[in-house]
Every structure is written in structure tokens, then in C-alpha cells.
Amino acid sequence: MASLSIARRRLITIILNLTARTRSIFTRNSPSNITKRTRRKTDLEELREQIGSAGEYDLHDILRQQNRLEWPEWHWPVNENDKITKIVENFHRDFNKMKESSSIVGLIRIIEDTWLHLMDDNDKDWSYVKACFKQARELDDPLLILKALTDTNKFSRCLNRHSAANIYHALKLYCTLLNCPVLARTQEYTEAFTKILFHPKLKNIEAQNITVYRGMVLEDEKPIANCKVGGIIITTTFLSTSANQVVAEMFGTTPPESMISVFFTYKIRGTTRRTALKLQSISKCPEEEEILIMRFIPFKIVSVERTEDGRKIEICFDEFTEHEVSKQSNCYYHNCITLCEDDVYEINGGKH
Length: 352
Hints:
Structural class: alpha+beta
Helix content: 40-55%
CATH topology of the largest domain: Toxin ADP-ribosyltransferase, Chain A, domain 1
Protein name: Mono(ADP-ribosyl)transferase
Organism: Rotaria magnacalcarata
Distance between the termini: 35 Å
Order of helices and strands: HHHHHHHHHHEEEHEEEEEEH
Number of domains: 2
Oligomer: single chain
Largest sheet: 6 strands, mixed
């Protein structure tokens, strides 16, 4: 909270300084003497125009150009280990208020009105997603929202890109809804979607005490450079995995030369929070035994192993639970924004 307060004060100072400079410019210059420099669009104005004109509402390329980010943007260091629990609890607090009788109709309308209506009706994938949302709204059924997610790669990719952008701007750049078009366009709908997945009606598909796997191909080790043994990562997007190791391995098969294969193992506990959901019963591909890991779940890095040629890496994670806080102190960890690797999807043709 202290860092956020400092950031807000800095932001206010910047705004006041900019306002003062703007007034000074217009005081010194009459309309006839305004130079091209004073008429030049600000970066924020240009970003707003780009986002507003994005046909498919895909912020990924726009943000990469603006911020020169490597996707996914992984780093969010926190120096005090006891903050892990506070961060997770703060994120989950509002979602845990959902009751069995809570309606998701309002949340669905938020998603439809702020984002989904911009998707192309002539695209069969987006048409399917919209139909699922419409049915879910009519039946007040969160399971149909999950079905749209697991059955459509375009939807899961877009949602996770925007979730990654949202976290980056909110927690690393300290943006606000008033000054940042990225947050203004992503925060409301990504949080509404997350809240739906915490609905008590989905309790019967919670995954507990299970080991899941994920395979992928990466261009280099940048996305996993900070995965060090003993460190902690926190997922900030929805992470698709499989309970079947063989299935996961297929998504991380021997990559083309100059690329690397990465295989992740996650020990899911799910005893103190909603950690993951079992999607096999609603998936078009039940043989994949898909398990969806939720946003903001902390994992300890148990091991990192590489082959001699460095082209295959195996990383094992164990869910970090509250009682472990007392065992560790002053632990440096990183916030991992996951599921944003375009190349992974294109190479593997799937979500894992």
C-alpha cells in the first residue's frame, strides 16, 4: 500500500507539472504562433487512438510496440516473503464473496458490453464464444463460460494477453483507470471473468491434491530466466495444464533448431484456496484431461533441470501454502505472467 501511495503522489506531481507546462505554453504563444511541436500528439493520445481502432481488439501488438516488452512480462520482485500471502489474499478477497445464490448475469453483461461485442460475428470461433455467453446469461450458468474458454484458443489467448497487460500496467507501471487506456479497456472485463470462475457453483470441479503438467516450446530462456530453485512465482493469468503427462509432453516435443522445449510439473494442493478447475467434463477434447490453474496462485520452484545441450528444460513447482511463510523469510520471488507466448500457440497448435 505504501508503494502505491508513493506512486499516486508521483503521478499527481507529474500531472500537475504537465498542466503547468501546458498553461505556460499557451500563455507564451498565441494561436497563430503555435508550433508543430505543441500540436504533436502525446504518446497517450496515440495509444488511445491505436487501441480504439484495433479491429479485433487485440492489444498485444500495440502494447509490445509502445513498451517494447518481451512477452510474457515476468518480473515483479517482492523482497518480503510474508507479502506472498497478503498479495494472494487481497486478490482473492472480492472473489471469495461470491455465494451459491450470486447471479453472474451482471458480470456476463460487463464482458459483453466492454469487450465481446467488438469481436467479429463472422468468425466462427467468436460466434461460438458469443453463443456460449448468451446461453450462460440466460441460464445463469458459469459452467458455460468455462466451456467457451476451454473450447476456443482465440478466446483463451486474448483473455490472457489482456490479463498480462492489465497486471503489467496496474502493478508495475502504477497506472490508473483514468490515465491509462490499457487498464480502461481490460480491467473491468478480465476481473468480471475471473470472478465468474470463483463462483461456488463450480466447486464440484475444483482440483485438489493432484499433479499436473504443461509442455511448451520457446524461442529462448527469457520467459523462464528468473525461475530459480527456492524462489516463488505467482501466476497472474489462467494457466492451461493437463493431468496426463503424455498429453502435456506432446505440446513440448523436440523443437526446431535454435528453440527449446520446456516441461513444467505443478503440484496442486487447493486446500486453502481455489487453485485449479477440472475441465475434462466440459471440454471438446476430454482426452486432454485439462486442468485450469487460476490467477494469482503462488508456487515454490522445487527444481530446474537442463539437458547437456540446453534444449530441454524441466521445472517443478509446488503450490505455496500459508503455513510455509513461517519457514522462510526475505525470499526474493517473481510474478510470472503466463500463457502469452504467441509462438508457443503457433508451433503447437494448442493451449498447453
